[in-house]
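User: For my dataset I need records formatted as: sequence, then structure tokens, nothing else. Please produce one.
Assistant:
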Amino acid sequence: MGERVVAGGGGCWPPPMDLMRSESMQLVQVIIPIESAHLTVSYLGDLALLQFKDLNADRSPFQRTYASQLKKCGEIARKLRFFKEQMSKAGLTPSFKSIAASAVNVDDLEVKLGDLEAELVEINANGEKLQRDYSELLECKIVLRKVGEFFHLAQSKATQQQREIESQHDGGESIDTPLLRDQEMAADLSKQIKLGFLCGLVPRDKSVAFERILFRATRGNVFLKQAEVEQTVTDPTSGEQVEKNVFLVFFSGDRAHNKILKICEAFGATRYAFNEDLGKQAQMIDEVSVRLDELKTTIDVGLHHRRNLLRNIGDQFEQCSRLVRKEKAVYHTLNMLSLDVTKKCLVAEGWCPVFATKQIQDALQRAANDSNAQIGAILQALHTKELPPTYFQTNKVTSAFQEIVDAYGVARYQEANPAVFTIVTFPFLFAVMFGDWGHGICLLLATLVFIVREKKFSGQKLGDITEMTFGGRYVILLMSLFSIYTGLIYNEFFSVPFELFAPSAYACRDFSCSDATTAGLIKVGETYPFGLDPVWHGTRSELPFLNSLKMKMSILLGVAQMNLGIILSYFNAKFFRNIINIWFQFIPQMIFLNSLFGYLSLLILIKWCTGSQADLYHVMIYMFLSPTDDLGENQLFPSQKTVQLVLLFLALVAVPWMLLPKPFLLKKQHEERHRGHSYVQLETSEDTFQLETNDHGTREHEEFEFSEVFVHQLIHTIEFVLGAVSNTASYLRLWALSLAHSELSSVFYDKVLRLAWGYNNLIILVVGIIIFICATVGVLLVMETLSAFLHALRLHWVEFQNKFYEGDGYKFYPFSFALAGDEEE
């Protein structure tokens, strides 16, 4: 049975943010009267601190209690999408005008939107019909004019030919006069053939095929005349702008007429009536022009009315959309609740933070009062062995780092959160690879644009890449600040060194100093106070010196971060009271890692402090191959040989220490836990359904497979031993990418900018500056930034987090109207 939560169990406000451990969660049961269920869920959605569990998972969506209400909301959402599409076609954007809450009701909204949809559909249908009639009349007018020109031209030619014949007849016969002219003219007029004709418009891209088909279908017994229409016309059927030709075809007989009609239909040609009488032609053109003017006026009035209607809809569109999304989310949540018909109430279960108990109780009481319910909702905590969800309270700065960690895996409930350390270590490791304070300033300026204008950008729809960059603006801010810091240490400003803090401590012994090694330099002053002495840049020994420095620094940083990961595993074990993990995981892992690579880090520091010339490669290799041999000139401190033997012995002992005891101790714990376990009588009561829901998949007798546990521990041990070597080597990417970034920057500066400057030509200099800027931005500020980001991500996900981070939890997703709105969009 669950126990009641007392009113003072939580505060009104959440406690201060603690990113180290996730918030304490509890499984609660809420018994809600049906009459206040809708308002209760709505208030809980505004609170956004309760994650409901689906108690009807075995039912299909259509079998749930509020399926009809969800269907209604879906229908209203469909109408709103229809209105939005119509507004988009009209070039209108929805605007927000607040309406009194009492004026908004889902049932009234459904009726109102139904009437508006019917009106808009009728306006669209009438507008389409008028537009189709207008397009047909416009085509008819074009045909009348073009075909009239055909007939006028043909009549003019016929009149001219008749005059020529008459003049030749009056002037007497000549040698060119046809011999049978008199017989032809004397033929019976009753035998003359009467030709019919059709005219209209055919798409220009089909005109050639149209002419060929006509010729073949009638065996050439037609006369076709075509003329191009200068402007595109609106096709009455499709409503699209199409290039067309006016055609006029003469034929003889009904059979040819039927064939031509079918061909016109097949090619989408529109036909129009035409009268040969010139007077009637002018009358038809005038009538068509008058009807076009009338239709144009009617269409304009209809479009104005439609635009006003859409504008009125747009004024309320955002609020209606928000209301529908809210109602849909409420009913979707209500469908997750269990309905108890006899008690006329709904039973809800869900997870909430412990600190939110009082806030949830206040919301339940407020819902009961506002809905005039006779009894209020009952909130009670349930006991369960189910793993709670993970909930970290973040702000706009820490949320991006938490997302970086969650992308690998959500933290198990209340295990140590790597994001606390990632806030510092991630931008720092990035800066180790990207160190250049000139490039860091460029990143800083670009990030400040997003930060200064974040209110504007947060309300806009951004592209995928821009939105991702904007979301991580504070990560990039810290990356740029750390890059400036490491760039000052490396003393590189676009690969150029500066004497920022003091003059160089070295001077050239002679003029050949720049081509010599460090033997050509003599120390003339105090050691450079901060970072790298600028005199190293440009010398022959620069690369060997920086390689040695950055490689050793990478090992030190890697060993330190891996030790931090192992130490966090201790705090996890202590928090969960897992003594076995402390003695047989944390301690042997610390011994193994520091016996080898902790010792290497110590040798590096001793060599730096003493200035010894010892070969650390030789020391580490022969520590394994010949541990009893004398170190000779590679000895860094007294009794080093003895220390190495002890450390090697401890490293060898740590491996079976990790592997063997833990599986046997887990088996012993399991046997003790279930020794003397017996069955008990089941308790029955009216609230049996509560007991069933409280079980949540817990098992009274968990199976224990010793072989599986032993194999798992064997894999874990092998992975750690091999990973200690591979992970340490993986941190050398800090050295490699830092060197690559420095060399690329140096190449762009020396081979582009300085080379262009040496020509003493303004045009070459401008071109060189442009190429230098493009290369710097494209390669160093974009590609190198992405490369260093991904490598820093890899170091945190693999080398750091695998030492302590389980990452097999699941996120806390409270019921929230804000999240529901984002999902809908």
